[in-house]
Amino acid sequence: MTTLAGGTDTLTRDALTVLQPGFTGTTAPDWLLRRLGEGLASVGLFGRNIASPGQLAALTAQLRAERDDVLVAIDEEGGDVTRLEVRTGSSFPGNHALGAVDDVELTRQVAHELGRRLAASGVNLNWAPSADVNSDPRNPVIGVRSFGADTDLAARHTAAYVTGLQSAGVAACTKHFPGHGDTAVDSHHALPRIDVPADVLTDRELTPFRAAIAAGSRAVMSAHILVPALDPDRPATLSRRILTGLLRGELGYDGLIVTDGMEMRAIAGTYGIERGSVLAVAAGADAICVGGGLADDATVRRLRDALVAAVRTGELPEARLAEAADRVRALARWASTAGRAPGETHGSEIGLHAARRALTVTVAPGLGTPETFKPLTEPPYVAALTPVANIAVGDETPWGIAAELVHLLPGTVTGSFSAEGGNESDAGAGESAGRAALEAAGPRRIVAVVRDEHRHPWMAAALDTLLAARPDTIVVEMGVPQAAPRGALHIATHGAARVCGRAAAEVIAGV
What we know:
Low-confidence stretches: 1-7
Strand order of the largest sheet: 2-3-4-5-6-7
Strand content: 5-15%
Protein name: Putative lipoprotein YbbD
CATH topology of the largest domain: TIM Barrel
Radius of gyration: 23 Å
Organism: Streptomyces afghaniensis 772
GO molecular function: hydrolase activity, hydrolyzing O-glycosyl compounds
Structural class: alpha/beta
Domain Glycoside hydrolase family 3 N-terminal: 39-329
Largest sheet: 6 strands, parallel
Keywords: Glycosidase, Hydrolase, Lipoprotein
Number of strands: 14
């Protein structure tokens, strides 16, 4: 076995190279810097690692002082899923809002501006965009992270996003292959199963990925989903038929294949992360993403040693591990030298501009039109009907419109209401929440804020209660607007980012 400078043999170095671990803290720990010297080529950042743009730039500089071509990855979709602005909410409205506008040039500009900010902070790989077609409206994990339920729309905006992001010098990682949209199960918790015929998958799920590949997406992320029409035995992340046969062979993709987080229960709960990582690389994955929940040197050592042992026992061909490591290094070279589109900047307002364009405003019959609806002049009571947070989004990031309305209508008061006892399918719990909101509001005009009303029976019941007592209630839907519009004024924002809240608040206050 060849030994390299620093005492790390080629096999061990390759095993480290294919890992994309996270860590805790806002500076790089000693163990991480040491592993970069031994061959680790990628680091994943999360909200816990980011306090400010200046701190992030200092952190990425610290990493590059140890390895100048390190891939610094982040899960920055904009919209509901943000790490750059995890404590304030995103300056970008997210995919569903962009799909609602359906202006591919706007999508490209938004992605470019987001990429420009990432690049300025030293981040060069973004685990985005989501190319999933949100064909199941019950989907608990994709939803507004998708451009929409229309395949062709999702495809053209996925391509525009990839183009815009990479023109800023940041590699796109299109996800979640072969498509996570047609499921009502969250792979953070369990293994979703998609039972549709192969021809449906080809025409629907795969079309946006073909568009991403044609646009030059530098990376593709696999999904932890079981798709029996493609492989009845193993989830996509661990399936050679799907990663090598379909993605590499049939679709002709030759870039980096990254796994979704291996600590997610869909994999860890069945295979364990060590066994899962070996199977993923054997199936055709090139980079193992781990660190959303597991972020320490012990995890890195365990995965490194599992890969090395699998090669030595013959379970994992050494050539396959070497090929994977070479692809990681190739992307690192691209990312360290990628140029940005000359002179192109769209400014800090592009996200708000997109959020404003994405609004769908409906006025109750007999009350006029959106143009003639009388805006509020007195501070209202904002009743936020709050569902359990999606793990991909997290519960750190604020959402809603109250903070924005406070600026426009000082004195605005807010309260958060959820299903009593945590039973989100209980309409009775919703009635209780609605009565509590009415009591808290008193004589103030009510603005009810919901998120995916169609998926939460308690939320629909709470709205029933509010509207029966106060038909002048304004309703703001910040998820997928699947339920019929109701309320004196209904505003669908197509996302819960900070700028979506700002755009809705402007309509309510008449700004």
